[in-house]
Amino acid sequence: MKRLTIPEVVVARLPLYTQKLNQLLREGRESVSSQEMADHLGITSAQFRKDISFFGGFGKQGTGYNVIKLLESLRSVLNLDRIWEVALVGVGRLGQALMSYHGFSSTGFEIVMAFDNDPEIIGKSIAGIKVLDVKEMQKQICHREIPIAILTVPAASAQEIADQMIACGVKAIMNYTPTTLKVPKGIRLANIDPVLSLQTITFYL
Questions:
Q1: Coil, helix or strand for 105?
Q2: Residue 17 burial (10 A CB sphere; 0-12, 13-18, 19+)
Q3: What is the C-alpha to C-alpha distance for residues 1 and 62, in angstroms, rounded to an integer?
Q4: Which of 9, 131, 172, 177 matches a 20 to 30 Å C-alpha distance to 98?
Q5: In whole angstroms, what is the distance from residue 60 CA to residue 33 CA?
Q6: Residues 115, 92 contacting (CB under 8 angstroms)
Q7: Where is pLDDT greater, at 57 or 153?
Q8: Measured between alpha carbons, how far is 70 from 96 in angstroms, rounded to an integer?
Q9: Facing residues of 130 across strands?
Q10: How far apart are CA 120 and CA 133, in angstroms?
Q11: Per-residue pLDDT tens over the stretch 89-114
């Protein structure tokens, strides 16, 4: 499969499909129709079938999709059939909340190290993780070959920290800072800014 040929909008819908399938699994469902899956996202059943057709043939006409098999297949497509180690930089209130969030570990992600430059925070243990001095970040991330990082530092230092992480082999960054980062080609960047989302919502109110 040539992943670069898959539209990003399709990839963005896959985690939502797995979310629905996990819900159905908890409910004890064995099969699901394309229409029910499509309704979860407010799209057509034809669009759902087109989305998953990028990754192979699933389901049978008239019988729907086996929940477990489809979930396993989509998790494999998303590379969620393993545990991904994550480094977090910036252990303020948001960083501490993310470190304490159990949703990461239950979906295949584990924050294994955290860094900050505040002497009052360095050395403390939060959610079982000892906060290290940000000066050790490059050494530690390079040594452990961490592929994913979460950035919750002040905007002024975000680009410098991002550059250092990328130099150590980080391939994907979840950016919670209110600034636009510049990253090399091949580095995946997800920008999460609640304020911008709220400002978009108010347009419709």
A1: helix
A2: buried
A3: 27
A4: 9
A5: 10
A6: no
A7: 153
A8: 35
A9: 125
A10: 11
A11: 999 999 999 999 988 887 889 999 99
Residue 87 has pLDDT above 90, yes or no: yes
SS3 171: coil
CATH number of 84-198: 3.40.50.720
Cβ pair 88, 95 in contact under 8 A: yes
Quote the pLDDT of residue 1: 47
Percent of the chain with pLDDT strictly greater than 90: 79
- Both tokens of residue 166? 């990328």
Average of per-residue pLDDT across 46-57: 88
Contacts of 101 (CB under 8 A, 6+ apart): none
Give the separation between CA 70 and CA 66, rounded to whole angstroms: 6
Is residue 157 helix, strand or coil?
Answer: helix
Cβ 116 vs Cβ 143: under 8 Å: no
Name residues whose C-beta falls within 8 Å of residue 50's C-beta, 6 or more positions apart in sequence.
none
For the chain, what are the domain ranges?
3-77, 84-198
The CATH number of 3-77 is: 1.10.10.10
Spatial contact of 101 and 163, defined as CB atoms under 8 Å apart: no
Q: Widest CA span of the chain, in angstroms?
A: 63
- 3-77 against 84-198: fold identical: no
What's the burial of 197, exposed, middle or buried (CB within 10 Å: 0-12/13-18/19+)? exposed
The one-letter amino acid code at 96 reads Q
pLDDT on residue 72 = 93
